């Protein structure tokens, strides 16, 4: 594991400000006051299975009730509620029709150009049923994998729900990934169909989707794919392959608005979502139906304190786990009204978020620190887009997700967006955890900027050393979860061994879930602060990327001999990608270096996707290596930050190289 470089101030470890939950909030909250929180924690501690069984019975509708709560016989391949049967789409849609929410707005779709469409629970149910029948008409069935490569849309959510309805396992690929990334995922998942759109509309521009699907399929190896279903969004010009491609409107046109849900066992894989690890290709994180949905619904109630009249808005994309749990499933499972946003935060102006909150009277707003930091900058430059110019009085709760929120950004969010009235839930979790793990409860937990505070009831988070022994509060270590929980990753698709070694390493005793983050608990309060990844995973704008993936993309270019990628702190994006590259030709300088750096950035964009483009590229004749040939990444991290190397470099084979690598191209 790489060393855990902690910038104490940045992570708020020196933070002394405490913000108790506003009293009015606590009075009506689902979990009101720390006594209520403690009581739930005690319930979990005294009867772990009983606690989860109670919650699963209270918060989900089961077609066949489960009798077996947790099966640990094949650990770490844990099974939850395994003999129970249910359907996720039934829990998100049908039960809302049965409990009086049929005419309630499920989705307020805010298009890129500001057009709004309201979709009721009844409408959404009908759309999903038609979609599901359409999928069935093409022979897609329970257990099949379907890739969804779509922009933010009602149809994107409906596609996920339709797969769930028929028991097909979906794998959403973020619309910003390249053809090559898409192809890799299609092959690994063995997908039988792809659901996409002609184009996506973002920031006033039309960007290709279907053309990228065509390109991915043309790369070969995707023989399992029989159907490409295309939602017509922009009416842009696209190629059509007869027999394989079908318009969504043609597929669903004559389908019935009723579709009996396919009852699946609780462990049935609801979805696979690819995410980056420290080595190799992206991992297909496999989630279950029962345990996953339970936590998506329950965290809507506990963390977001969702109430019938709330308007919830999570700004994530359905291509990420946040968009799965807090757009496609969680809000619908609790019958909430939510905004689904197609656009970008800076179009037509950097006031778009605030304007949209005012327009739809959003009461719960959930976004990423990167977005907050970039909007702080924008409003510093242009006073007109400052939140004070918008009516944000509908807000009652704010959330943050995806990366550490620095105390200054937290304070700005608290003062200017929440107007010191709204608690902030800084939710720590991961693709693998399915839902929130460590977060304040808005009606209970006193908040400290920069700290995600305490684990949710039932989540046995702890900090241990490299041998798996508990470390005392005040001392940093490795974040683990000591007991399995219902919404945890079940396996890595096609790679159970990688699942076991990545998440349940023998060094920690083989029983603790290894999150991959470092953390420290406050001496007095026991609050957790996440200090960053302890592996070679970067977090750029809340997007997770493996340094190895970017390195592999770089060396795949014929001019590159060797590459090493590290993260460097960035004021806006949290971390930025810095690549050190050795070319097969002589080390370029000046204009040539600039030209080649641009070429390589675009190359990485093509290989992985624009989000993986290095912000900086530095060329050297070699990389700093030990005598045994190992790249000394810790030195590269210091160089990337622009700092002077004070560490011991006696094992370094080629110290002269360090000077070359100080300057970016
Ligand atoms: O490093 C942690 C960081 O994001 C990683 C998980 O990334 P991903 O699987 O893409 O899921 C992001 C959305 C849940 C974690 O290992 N992270 C996420 N939330 C926080 C965070 N770091 C600090 N504070 C958070 N609230």
UniProtKB/TrEMBL annotation:
Reaction catalysed by this enzyme: acetate + ATP + CoA = acetyl-CoA + AMP + diphosphate
UniProt-annotated binding residues for CoA: 202-205, 322, 541
Domain of life assignment: Bacteria
Binding site for Mg(2+): 555, 560
Class of this enzyme: ligase
PTM info: Acetylated. Deacetylation by the SIR2-homolog deacetylase activates the enzyme.
PTM sites of type N6-acetyllysine: 630
Domain Acetyl-coenzyme A synthetase N-terminal: from-to ranges: 37-92
Residue ranges of every copy of the AMP-dependent synthetase/ligase domain listed in the record: 100-485
Positions annotated to bind ATP: 402-404, 426-431, 517, 533, 544
GO molecular function: acetate-CoA ligase activity
Entry coiled-coil feature ranges: none
Keyword annotations: Acetylation, ATP-binding, Ligase, Magnesium, Metal-binding, Nucleotide-binding
Domain AMP-binding enzyme C-terminal: 549-630
Cofactor: Mg(2+)
Enzyme Commission number: 6.2.1.1
NCBIfam families linked to this entry: Ac_CoA_lig_AcsA, PRK00174.1
Function text: Catalyzes the conversion of acetate into acetyl-CoA (AcCoA), an essential intermediate at the junction of anabolic and catabolic pathways. AcsA undergoes a two-step reaction. In the first half reaction, AcsA combines acetate with ATP to form acetyl-adenylate (AcAMP) intermediate. In the second half reaction, it can then transfer the acetyl group from AcAMP to the sulfhydryl group of CoA, forming the product AcCoA.
Family membership: Belongs to the ATP-dependent AMP-binding enzyme family.
Protein name from the UniProt record: Acetyl-coenzyme A synthetase
Organism: Massilia niabensis
